[in-house]
Amino acid sequence: MVFEFLKLNKKITDNEFDTIYPENLKKLGHVHWTPVEVAIEAVAFLTDIKSPNILDIGSGAGKFCLIGAAITKADFTGVELRPELYKLAKRIAKHYGLPNTQFINSNILEVDFSPYNAFYYFNPFYENIEQVNTIDDTLDLKTQNYNIYTKYVKQQLEGMPKGTRLVTYWSSAKDVPLNYTLQGESMNGLLEMWEKTY
């Protein structure tokens, strides 16, 4: 029902959306999953280009991609390191008939950014620094990982073609390459829209 409401442009709360998740993941939503309102605004910016193909860097339980796939015809891919979250997101997409989203179970260091022209970045590596409210204990979290992952993402984004779009949420501007220009912001500056301009 939540996806039908989204397709009809009906307002959905995060509590309503998160009913699609198991109980143990619902309580993580306010920290780790993108709010519905944020996802809708980010998707609008990322899909306002020709043939949008969007990569969610650290897709978790898939919420951003699932919402995007429900409200647009754009292609969404989520990359997630945790196998259980990856499998869950895939099952939900299949169950609710959202063919324009897929999920990859991979370390971000193994992902080629070149097939994509738009990116969503909700501070996916922060668990490695602030190990409070962690999703689970399956990963070896350490500051070194945060530095390696953010450096890789920044390098990949820097090499993308002019016109590439990026939305960051709860993220530092220092993670964004200098050849991206801020196009707009909302949510008291927490949500920022960028475009590669040179």
Average residue-wise pLDDT: 95
Helix-strand makeup class? alpha/beta
Helix segment tally:
8
Q: Low-confidence runs (pLDDT<50, min 5 residues)?
A: none
Task: Compute the separation of the termini in Å.
Answer: 43 Å
The largest sheet, given as strand count, sense and whether it forms a barrel, is: 7 strands, mixed
What's this model, at a glance?
By secondary structure, the protein is α/β, with parallel strands linked by helices. The protein is built from eight helices and seven strands.
Give structural attributes.
alpha/beta; 7 strands; 8 helices; seven-stranded mixed beta sheet; 34% helix; 19% strand; 198 residues
Q: Would you write up a description of this structure?
A:
The protein is α/β, with parallel strands linked by helices. The protein has a 7-stranded mixed beta sheet, with helices on one face. The mean pLDDT is 95. The chain has helices at 2-7, 14-17, 23-26, 29-32, 36-46, 63-71, 83-95, 143-158, and strands at 53-57, 75-80, 101-105, 118-121, 165-169, 180-186, 191-196.
